[in-house]
Amino acid sequence: MPRLQKNDNFIDKTFTILADIILKILPTSKEEKQAFYYYRDGMSAQSEGEYAEALEYYYEALLLEEDPYDRSYILYNIGLIYASNGEHIKALEYYHQALELNSKLPQALNNIAVIYHYQGIKAANQNKINTSKSMFSKAAIYWEQAISLAPNNYIEAQNWLKTTGRINTKQ
């Protein structure tokens, strides 16, 4: 099951060794340990741009992982892969599933906003004004939520909200 890392660097090796030690010490079930190994291997494959391989590992981790918090991160990473491949509808589905399990995931909220913003720009370029306004409004809603969870992050989104007059002053 362990993935052979092609670009083993010091940090990756150190993380792997520490994670293995912690897993041996912690009182976790065999399934939880396997789920973690799949998740770790998925992250490794994803970082190397091996998205199909990463998805296989993440789907295996989902079959084994029961903890909602941990599942939310697996779902989030699956969403990242679909978004990077331009499959925005699938990415949105996985981001929303992640948020159902963990509503305090600002990066998922941000990525949803980014997709809606992109769709808004695309619609504007096609002179679909109503669609564009709708997409920008959705982006604003998700960015406001992300910013409320992580006020020091997403500075560009904060600036966009201010310059477009979409900032919610109730925060």
Automatic annotation (TrEMBL):
Placement of TPR repeats on the sequence: 35-68, 35-68, 72-105, 72-105, 120-153
Protein's name in the database: Photosystem I assembly protein Ycf3
Membrane topology: Peripheral membrane protein
The keyword Cytoplasm appears for this protein: no
Family classification: Belongs to the Ycf3 family.
Pfam families: TPR_1, TPR_8
Cellular-component GO terms for this entry: plastid; thylakoid membrane
GO biological process, one term: photosynthesis
Function field: Seems to be required for the assembly of the photosystem I complex.
Protein keywords: Membrane, Photosynthesis, Plastid, Repeat, Thylakoid, TPR repeat
Organism: Delesseria sanguinea
Superkingdom assignment: Eukaryota
Localization per record: Cellular thylakoid membrane; Plastid
